[in-house]
Design a protein that fits this description.
heterodimer, A: about 475 residues, alpha/beta, 13-stranded parallel beta sheet, B: about 280 residues, mainly alpha, about 85% helix, globular
């Protein structure tokens, strides 16, 4: 009896204890989110972490004394050499490296911490020693002041490349960031991570092997120009950031070229989204993004070219979308989107539609698999183009259907089905499909394979042709000799 | 042994000379070269002038051309050669040469003539292709050439199985069978597989398509060559299904090659045994 009572008592106590522990925890957990929800923008969440502070003197760089002695606005010239230790910059300064001085971090925190406005940091190589932690946002350069200028730096072996922490008006230019090759995306940070930073300018940077190339969160009114991002998870990963412009960037070989969410008023011009080839990979993904204008981009050789979900009022004009398994994936939650003057070339299927219908407007695009006629010669085919073929119908539950989709049988089947539609087609049309591919001179040129081996190709082709010609001309003579022999 | 080999070569040369004398091979060579050049030269236009993956776009169009023309010509030339006029047949088979050597020699002669005719077209198309698109696909181009050789061999063997032991009295019927086989291999099997597959549950359906593609020699050549040109992503996620089904890229290639070899050897076995049993 006593045992039972004791157990009961314990159970009650445990419940009380659990309650006592959980309630404050829950409150502390929800409070910051609650606070964030009250934020004026409505999107900004609580600061991702506490800011790393100045480390103990033993971790400091030999350059630290010069910084501490400098007056605001001073210029510090740094000679070539290796400087081991962290830099803490707490006043407006210009640091210029000559002969690429190398800053090797202590491995306990970010190598360079910029904690003042108007700091310029030019011409350094930075080695993060694989140190620090993701939860502290340990970076090659961590910026929490405004109007920093980071140019011509090289950053490697650091969890994040550059971390912008509410660092409005920061410029990062001509900087090369190499992530940690072979490290799982979950275990390292992004090349350039921007949190709650306005009017940033990211230009001419090269990023490889990071988790994401750029991660932009709650960072608006920025300009991303002429960067090259490859071999990362997402080239551009993005949320709650409005009115940003992306021009002349190259995003290649990622799980996604760019994945953008919950943002509006973005422009993409002349970017290349290439070679996102993994299973379910995508060139440019928009989820809950509105008023995006994408013009003159090259979206090529991706498993899925363009992915739209819950995104409205976006315009795609003059882009070249080529060589994808599916050029477009559109969820019916996406409304009032418009495609005009794009060239869709060599895609296995033009559109994979999730849902039965879409109000997406297609007009005056070029579709390379459209065989319709243009008898009146006005450059527009006489019949509308239907963005679906019999294979889209089959592909749904038949993953191997594409194996035969490029044979003559498939052609015959498609032609027959277009002539006598028996399947309920996806009701999506381009009313005025172009008869000839539009001249898209502003679209970036696709990467050319090197011509070096063309000689071998010529040789092979000549050899094959010569064999044919020789056999055809000598064959008769052989026959004649035969006759003589007989 | 050496004698039968030299007899084989003699007969092959005779067959080559005969088919050249009738000018039909030259006509085929010109037609094929013209079409191949057209595809090679217009591939750029077809690809939208975008310059994107020009080589593989054009090469893939050449694959379609090969699949359309090569099996048909191999079947027709093969059947025609193997169903000689009665007099010619008597003369040929009365020679002191084994019947299967005669068959092999005839097939070798036609094979040489056909591949030579294709080689002219492929060579010219290759020159245009490499000149125009630069170089990113020697292996793809060689794949094309190998594909055309394989298709010729397969469909000549099938022609032999249809026609061996017959003479011109049965030529019309043999030609009709040849055309039906061509239609089946190039068009009907794919459609039938799709039709059957769409009535099956999804896992089984994909297997049906994969097996039919592997088992159909035209499908196997198409799959192999397109993958040589465009890499294993040539068919999107279907490529993945195929690779997974066959257990890896290496064993997939092995299966494709095996299928093609079986389709060369098996009809030849049928043809020789038919020829042996026939009373000529």
């Amino acid at each position: 009896m006593k045992v039972v009572e004791a157990v009961k008592l314990m159970r009650v106590n445990f419940t009380l204890l659990a309650f006592a522990i959980c309630t404050p925890t829950l409150i502390t957990l929800t409070l910051p989110q609650f606070a964030a929800a009250q934020d004026t923008t409505g999107h900004t969440e609580a600061p991702p972490s506490r800011l790393e502070r100045r480390g103990p003197a033993i971790d400091a760089s030999p350059l630290q004394a010069r910084i501490d002695a400098a007056q605001p606005g001073d210029r510090i010239d740094v000679a070539a050499g290796t400087y081991t230790g962290d830099l803490y910059i707490d006043r407006p300064l210009t640091l210029v490296g000559h002969g690429r001085p190398k800053l090797v971090g202590s491995g306990h925190r970010s190598v360079v911490m910029i904690r003042a406005d108007h700091v310029t940091f030019d011409g350094f190589d930075i080695d993060g020693q694989l140190g620090g932690s993701l939860s502290d946002d340990t970076a090659g350069i961590h910026v929490s002041g405004h109007a920093a200028v980071i140019v011509r730096c090289r950053i490697e072996r650091s969890l994040f490349g550059v971390y912008l922490y509410a660092a409005d008006d920061t410029v990062i230019d001509a900087t090369t960031i190499t992530g940690i090759l072979g490290k799982d995306p979950g275990e390292q940070g992004s090349g350039i991570h921007s949190w709650n930073t306005k009017r940033f300018r990211l230009t001419g940077n090269t990023i490889r092997y990071s988790r994401d190339g750029f991660y932009l969160q709650s960072s608006s009114d920025g300009f991303v120009l002429n960067n090259r991002v490859s071999d990362v998870r997402y080239g551009l990963h993005y949320m709650f950031s409005d009115r940003n412009a992306f021009e002349d960037n190259v995003f290649e070989r990622g799980a996604a070229g760019a994945a953008l969410m919950y943002s509006k008023d973005l422009t993409f011009r002349r970017n290349s989204f290439l070679h996102s080839r993994g299973f379910g990979s995508v060139g440019l993904l928009l989820r809950a993004c509105d008023n995006v204008l994408a013009e003159d981009n090259l979206i090529a050789d991706n498993a899925r070219g363009l992915f739209l979900e819950g995104s409205t009022l976006n315009v795609f004009r003059g882009n070249l979308i080529a060589e994808s398994d599916a050029a477009l994936v559109i969820y019916d939650s996406s409304l009032k989107n418009r495609f005009e003057g794009n060239a869709f070339i060599g895609n296995l299927t033009p559109l994979r539609l999730s849902g039965r219908r879409t109000d997406t407007v297609f007009d005056r695009n070029y579709w390379s698999d459209d065989t319709g006629l243009d008898l009146d010669g006005d450059g527009v085919r006489d019949d509308p183009y239907r963005l679906s073929n019999v294979f889209d119908h089959l592909r749904g539950n038949l993953s191997a259907a594409d194996l035969v989709s490029r044979g003559l049988g498939a052609r015959a089947l498609s032609a027959a089905e277009r002539g006598f539609p028996v399947l309920r087609p996806i009701p999506v049309l381009d009313a005025h499909p172009l008869a000839r591919p539009p001249v898209l001179s502003r679209v970036p040129a696709p990467p050319r394979a090197e011509r070096g081996g063309a000689g071998v190709g010529f040789l092979a082709a000549s050899a094959i042709g010569a064999f044919g010609m020789a056999t055809l001309t000598l064959g008769r003579r052989l026959g004649r000799r035969n006759a003589e022999a007989a | 042994m050496t004698r039968s080999r030299s007899m084989l070569w003699l007969i092959a040369r005779r067959e080559l000379a005969l088919s050249l004398r009738s000018r039909s091979i030259q006509m085929f060579a010109v037609l094929f070269a013209a079409l191949a050049l057209m595809v090679a030269a217009s591939g750029y236009v077809l690809s939208g002038g975008s310059g994107f993956q020009d080589f593989s776009r054009t090469a893939a169009s050449l694959v379609e051309l090969l699949l359309l023309l090569v099996p048909l010509t191999a079947l027709i030339f093969g059947v025609t050669v193997l169903t000689p006029d009665v007099g010619a047949a008597e003369l040929l088979y009365s020679q002191p040469v084994e019947r299967r050597t005669v068959l092999a020699g005839q097939l070798a002669g036609v094979f040489l003539a056909l591949t030579a005719a294709q080689a002219v077209g492929l060579g010219l198309a290759g020159l245009v292709l490499f000149a125009r698109t630069g170089f990113d696909g020697l292996s793809g181009y060689l794949g094309l050439a190998a594909g055309s050789v394989a298709l010729t061999a397969v469909f000549l063997a099938i022609a032999a199985a249809i026609a061996a032991g017959h003479n011109s009295a049965r030529r019309a019927r043999a030609l009709a069978s040849a055309v039906i086989i061509w239609l089946a291999a190039v068009v009907v099997i794919d459609i039938a597989a799709l039709g059957i597959a769409s009535a099956l549950p999804s896992g089984l359906a994909s297997k049906t398509i994969i097996v039919s593609t592997l088992a159909n020699p035209a499908g196997a050549v198409r799959t192999a060559v397109l993958m040589m040109i465009e890499g294993t992503a040539a068919f999107g996620s279907a490529s993945m299904a195929l690779v997974r089904f066959t257990g890896g890229v290496a064993s997939m290639s092995a299966w494709l090659v095996l299928s093609i070899l079986v389709w060369i050897v098996a009809p030849l076995v049928v043809a020789t045994s038919r020829l042996r049993k026939t009373d000529l």
